Amino acid sequence: MAIPTFVDRVQLHVAAGRGGNGVASVHREKFKPLGGPDGGNGGPGGSVILRVQNDVTTLLDYHHSPKRRAEHGGHGAGGHRNGAHGGDLVLPVPEGTVVSDRDGNVLADLVGPGTEMIIAEGGRGGLGNAALASSKRKAPGFALLGEPGDELDIVLELKVVADIGLVGFPSAGKSSLIAAISRARPKIADYPFTTLVPNLGVVTAGETTFTVADVPGLIEGASEGRGLGHDFLRHIERCAALVHVIDTATMEPGRNPLDDLDVIENELARYGGLEDRPRLVALNKVDVPDGSDLADIVLADLEERGLRVFPVSAASSKGLRELTFAMAGIVEEARASKEVVEATRIVLRPGAVDGSDSFTVTATGDGWRVRGTKPERWVRQTDFSNDEAVGFLADRLNRLGVETRLLELGAVEGDAVLIGHPDDAVVFDFKPGLDAGAENLARRGEDSRFDDTRPAARRRRDIQEGMGERAEGETRADVARRLRGDADEQADRTTYGPSSYEIGGADDPDWAEQDPDQESDRS
After folding, report:
1. Known binding-site residue numbers
2. 72, 131, 202, 218: least buried by Cβ within 10 Å?
3. Closest CA to 241 of 206, 282, 270, 197
4. Cα atoms found within 13 Å of the Cα of residue 164, Cβ hemisphere only
5. 163-186 b/e with 16+ CB inside 10 Å = b?
């Protein structure tokens, strides 16, 4: 099996890294049993970036390895330690690479060294419980999950960036011509379809330097898939002008320069998009006597069509100087006609970080479907094995107005509510006004250990109230001891009985007064 050395079109599957999960952690330290939440955030996943590099001329690497994935973000940890950022994956591509989705929609045209594009963005890291804590939710027992990164199929298509394109029949001498006017060294042989891949050469004419590209030879029916040239015509789409290289010394019967020109123009018209490019005609191989005679015959007919014609010989270099200066003139005109883009002041007005607050609710056969940037992202961040996290999601959706909108549309308790894309939607049972969250908490996200009704808080409140009834000279410590003594005495009376008593006496809890024998013993 032949191994390709030049690839100009590949289909690539790219996947960005997933964001790391946040962590639910509580600070633990000696003599500090309630140190508070200290769970760190997850790190963001790495992105996939396409970058133009001058030393890359083919897409061959992606032909052999069509699946690329960036690094995942690290998970958070206790002690307010955030997860590591996933490393970005930079994919070098040649200049002139066109990026499309699998439906053919162009996403970017990468021209210019250093140009780059984030084709797949890494997922966000989930928040830890330290970031979720608030005055009302002092000790969250949950954290948010990291979001998955973008994952998609793209098509990379290389279109060589050249100023002049050479077109013509196989064996017309295009490779010989580009080798004669530049330092390019393409394969040259005396059989058709010697050129299997586009060749690029740099030409200098006077003070103008430009690039010339030739593509595999075209034949009649190329637009219908015959031959090789039609597959590479994309490489001359960016050219400022086209040069028809016509063989004047061909030995094939039925061929002449005028017919060859008509066939090639017909194939270019079928390909489309090249009608406005200036044309030059190079009548090649005039070093051959028959070729020189034929060039003299057709020269007038070609000029009547408004074409600039140059009899040339790639073997003897005859007429090449005039041809290269004519190319340089067209390139200079094309460069001068380009509009100069002036640098403008860029004012950044970033929108909301969380995206749009808008969402839609649609009635379907499966239930009420909710679509929107925020609801779908919140669902991806939720750990559904944690009741408190599910309750937090319910609160967020309620604040966004999802519940209100469902009630307005006629949703009733028990209806199915689907959030997300039909392929991976999360289904809930609609329960309006239900207090969600963990059952052991008075309110979602609150810890009863931090409540002001715990014993220490009640004792401080009782002491403060007792200060208003204290005797003269009694301090706050005296009030505390008195209240503690009253509490201990009350506890002893109600639970354990008197702290001391005389055996057989009236306070003896083991002495039954109703027993006659014990009464006689007592007397």
Report:
1. 168-175, 193-197, 214-217, 284-287, 313-315
2. 202
3. 282
4. 33
5. bbbbbbbbbbbbbbbbbbbbebeb
Please name every residue paired with 13 in a beta bridge, in sequence order, or none if there are none.
Answer: 67, 153
Q: List Cα–Cα distances, 232 to 264, 265, 508, 510, in angstroms.
A: 14, 16, 112, 110
Cα separation, 11 vs 13, in Å, equals: 7
Q: Mark the binding-site residues for Mg(2+), compressed into ranges.
A: 175, 195
pTM over 0.85? The answer is no
> What is the Cα–Cα distance from 73 to 83, expressed in whole angstroms?
7
- Apex CA 424: angle with CA 140 and CA 124, to 5°? 45
d(CA 488, CA 486): 5
Could you give the C-alpha distances from 473 to 470, 476, 478, 479, in angstroms and in order? 8, 10, 9, 11
Edge-to-edge, what's the strand order for the sheet holding 308-311? 199-205, 208-214, 164-167, 241-247, 279-284, 308-311
Per the annotation, where are the binding residues for GTP?
168-175, 193-197, 214-217, 284-287, 313-315
pLDDT along the chain (523 residues), means of 10: 63 95 89 83 94 85 91 94 94 90 88 88 94 87 93 89 84 83 63 58 86 75 54 78 86 79 85 84 87 86 88 88 90 81 56 65 89 90 89 88 89 88 84 52 46 65 80 80 71 50 59 49 46
DSSP 451: S
